[in-house]
Amino acid sequence: KEIFGESHLETAISLNNLAILSEAKGNLIIAEDLSRQAAIIGEVNRDSHKNEYLSFAINYARILFLNGKNSDSESLYYKVKNSYEQNDNFHTDQGYAQCLQGLAQLKLHSGQLEDAYELLNKSLQININLFGDSNHLICKNLIGIAHYHSLSGQFQESSILLEQVLKICKETFGEGHPEVAVALTHLGNLYFELSQ
Question: Which of the residues 78, 149, 156, 161 has the least number of beta carbons within 10 Å of its own beta carbon?
């Protein structure tokens, strides 16, 4: 702020990074405020830095969802989604895939399973086209689809996807990485549901 000023893109980047750090530390109230500030600055600079603005807005929408502000989160996700869809190449943009993923999580949470499934598959396809089918960036999509299958009573399909996530995470990060622990937790939760 001292070097660039209150409404500079670098200030927004710093605020967004602090929001991510605050979230990681479990302080979602501070994370929400910081991500809101970043999104506001991003919107001011939207014409010259659209991708950054959309990234800040996605992070803010995600943190709103984590704080239980689903209506605000959904509105912001749709605003971002519509903004991406104004570009010719939106269907090849990882940010668009991330937006769809976040919106899908919100839909899963609210019981709109078929809408969530469609969004998750669109996001997955974009990420596979960009990064391949064994890249760790598809894991969130696969976990979301597995969650959909679980909620739909399709536990075998859920198990197959979660095993795939575990394999990708182990190959990408190694056995002792936190992402492997996340994959194991999802798989463990599924087996717990099945009394296995």
Answer: 156
